From TrEMBL:
GO terms for molecular function: aralkylamine N-acetyltransferase activity. It is an enzyme of class 2 (transferase). It catalyses: serotonin + acetyl-CoA = N-acetylserotonin + CoA + H(+); dopamine + hexadecanoyl-CoA = N-hexadecanoyl-dopamine + CoA + H(+); serotonin + (5Z,8Z,11Z,14Z)-eicosatetraenoyl-CoA = N-[(5Z,8Z,11Z,14Z)-eicosatetraenoyl]-serotonin + CoA + H(+); dopamine + (9Z)-octadecenoyl-CoA = N-(9Z-octadecanoyl)-dopamine + CoA + H(+). Residues 50-185 form the N-acetyltransferase domain. This is aralkylamine N-acetyltransferase. Belongs to the acetyltransferase family. AANAT subfamily. The keyword Disulfide bond does not apply. The lineage of its organism: Eukaryota, Metazoa, Spiralia, Gnathifera, Rotifera. SUPFAM superfamilies: Acyl-CoA N-acyltransferases (Nat). The keyword NADP does not apply. Gene3D superfamilies: 3.40.630.30. It comes from Rotaria sordida.
């Protein structure tokens, strides 16, 4: 992903990812423009994210927004939007009982933060291809492990196809019986922390 992709990536985040992602949909996140811009800035800074274009229409159809995390960096949620804060805190809770840095004996990991394929392009293995491309890139820059938080069964299956294992999972309803009460569909009723060595 390059600077020239910024506007199209922002559009895909707003019009596809935040519309479909279970937590964002459940909390009625609407259009978190500032948060989306911040994610893109981080992805561009670390230069390890990827995009897919339809070569016929020349339209952006998929993104994999990644960031490099270091063990000595303390994670502080600096977010004023209460709904986004809730989501980030939930994702952070996925890591409370497991230290992937220790697990993989490394000081740096690649975090697949957001992966999204435009609706009418799903089912063709593009998500798996983005994950595979990320794995290959992580190897190239000598990062030993990759992790992600999957928020539905479809993304979980993409990661499993690429050799990721589940390290932790939380049922949404167990985390918050009031705010996440509607997340009972078996395809999107839990979040998994998945990871693998490169």
């Amino acid at each position: 992903m390059r600077e020239k992709n910024r506007n199209e990536v922002l559009s895909l985040l707003i019009n596809s990812f935040f519309q479909d992602e279970p937590l964002a949909k459940c909390l009625q996140l609407e259009e978190p423009i500032d948060f989306a811009k911040s994610i893109i800035n981080n992805a561009l800074h670390d230069q390890c994210s990827f995009v897919i274009y339809d070569i016929q229409t020349k339209q952006l159809i998929g993104i994999c927004l990644n960031e490099i995390k270091f063990q000595d960096n303390k994670y502080i949620i600096n977010e004023t939007n209460e709904k986004i804060y809730f989501i980030l805190k939930f994702l952070n809770n996925m890591h409370l009982n497991i230290n992937l840095f220790n697990q993989f004996k490394t000081n740096s990991l690649l975090h697949i933060f957001i992966i999204n394929i435009k609706k009418n392009y799903r089912g063709y293995g593009l998500g798996s291809q983005l994950i595979l491309t990320t794995i290959e890139y992580a190897k190239k820059i000598n990062i030993k492990g990759i992790y992600a938080e999957t928020t539905n069964i479809y993304s979980l299956n993409c990661f499993k196809q690429q050799g990721f294992q589940v390290y932790h999972q939380i049922n949404y309803i167990d985390y918050d019986q009031i705010r996440l009460a509607s997340l009972t569909n078996p395809n999107q009723n839990q979040c998994q922390l998945v990871a693998r060595m490169t």
